[in-house]
Amino acid sequence: MPKLGMEPLRRRALIDATVAAIGEHGSLDVTMSQIAGRAGVSSALAHHYFGAKDDLLRATMRSLLADLGRELRARLAGATTPRARLSAIVAVNFSAQQFGEEVVAAWLAFYVEAQRSPEMRRLLNVYARRLHSNLTAALAGLMPRSEAIHVAEGIAAMIDGLYIRRALKNGAPDPVSAIALVEDYVALQIASKEHR
Amino acid sequence: MPKLGMEPLRRRALIDATVAAIGEHGSLDVTMSQIAGRAGVSSALAHHYFGAKDDLLRATMRSLLADLGRELRARLAGATTPRARLSAIVAVNFSAQQFGEEVVAAWLAFYVEAQRSPEMRRLLNVYARRLHSNLTAALAGLMPRSEAIHVAEGIAAMIDGLYIRRALKNGAPDPVSAIALVEDYVALQIASKEHR
DNA sequence: TTCTTTATTGATTGACGCGTCAATAAAAAA
DNA sequence: TTTTTTATTGACGCGTCAATCAATAAAGAA
């Protein structure tokens, strides 16, 4: 009983199922059948809409990046001062959406995949550059640009590191203390550059 | 023409080949044949000495951890002050051995695998705890213990984050600037706690 | 020399997973 | 009503890969 206009619904369901499957499994080693089953369809349908498995994985990664960008834009809209913009950028990376177990596991898996797939590496670089430029722009209002670039790298590295620790869920840092750790670093850097 | 006493040689060659294969491939998705071929033997021999593939991977991870521990102990031996011990711990993580492309890629791949394998997660936790306790011990000579614990987490996260960026080799941080970034963080934290 | 242990591999098996295809069914167009 | 388009799946082929096994060969022990 095929109702028409299923395509967008199926695409979304399959992408969500992909994130969930990767998140639960902890790697990209998930079968098309597992993903499709989770979305309530057959594996053949997943191929019908996405072609090869790689295409589905790429689409899933783009979806994650789009979500992140959307949330970032929303939070930045209400932040006027450089200091507030900094906190907004930090906060978005540890929001319930982005710092959720499944999403974090998926990110980590995609990072690994990016070593093989140039397309995925390109996508990740776009994100990394955007994060870095956002951080630098905000920091530049509080310190010399050359130092801002430096500090931005430190912040980005710390965020990535906290993602790893989250994925390994041992001494899993909760979002609150993770934010506190990064904010502490930010505050220290600003203060040290301030009283010259 | 089997010479005797091959076992230790083969084991080492196979483990080295595993690191190399993982490093080049960027994931644990390497076949036993690829690994064995790189070590100059047949895949059957790899199974003969290690059993299942998982066993070889676990042995490889233990080898990486052992190397790291050995180098850490060596560097700590010559460091007397808390400040020197801190720098030694940081430096080890970015040494030519540990921060080499292959080794970094292998670490990242094992991190992902640890989400599935409890045994690997256990091994990684041992390392994480040892790193954390070493850092905390050194920091405790320079600030209150409660703060030392906090700062140790920040350092560890930053190191992990720099590993990821190294693996993605885009804005790949060279060892020197990576060390500078972490040392800067350490110095700032110490200074801020110092002049109370 | 004969036997046993160690080293080594080619061939094989069995499982598994991607991607394809033909077939079915219903909605919409002709 | 016939035809076309959209939705959907079960079955299958093909390739890959981990793991096993029987066979070969040399070194040392008996």
Number of strands of chain A: 0
Q: Hey, which two chains have the biggest interface? A: A-B, 42 and 42 residues
Per the CATH scheme, the topology name of chain A is: Tetracycline Repressor, domain 2
- CATH top level assignment of chain A: Mainly Alpha
Multimerization state: homodimer
Please give the domain count of chain A: 1
Q: Helix- and strand-based class of chain A?
A: mainly alpha
Count of runs of 4 or more consecutive helical residues of chain A: 9
**Which superfamily, in CATH terms, is the homologous superfamily of chain A?**
Tetracycline Repressor, domain 2
Query: Which CATH architecture of chain A would you pick?
Result: Orthogonal Bundle
What can be said about the biggest beta sheet of chain A? none
Task: Write a structural description.
- Two copies of one chain form a homodimer.
- Chain A has a single domain (7-194), classed as Tetracycline Repressor, domain 2, CATH 1.10.357.
- Chain A contains nine helices and no strands.
- Chain A has helices at residues 7-25, 32-38, 43-50, 53-77, 82-93, 101-113, 118-139, 145-167, 175-194.
- In chain A, α5 packs antiparallel against α7 (118-139).
- The mean pLDDT of chain A is 95.
- The A-B interface holds A 25-27, 29, 105, 108-109, 111-116, 121, 124-125, 128, 132, 150, 153-154, 156-162, 164-165, 167-168, 170-171, 173, 181, 184-185, 188-189, 191-192 and B 25-27, 29, 105, 108-109, 111-116, 121, 124-125, 128, 132, 150, 153-154, 156-162, 164-165, 167-168, 170-171, 173, 181, 184-185, 188-189, 191-192.
- The structure holds a DNA duplex (30 and 30 nucleotides).
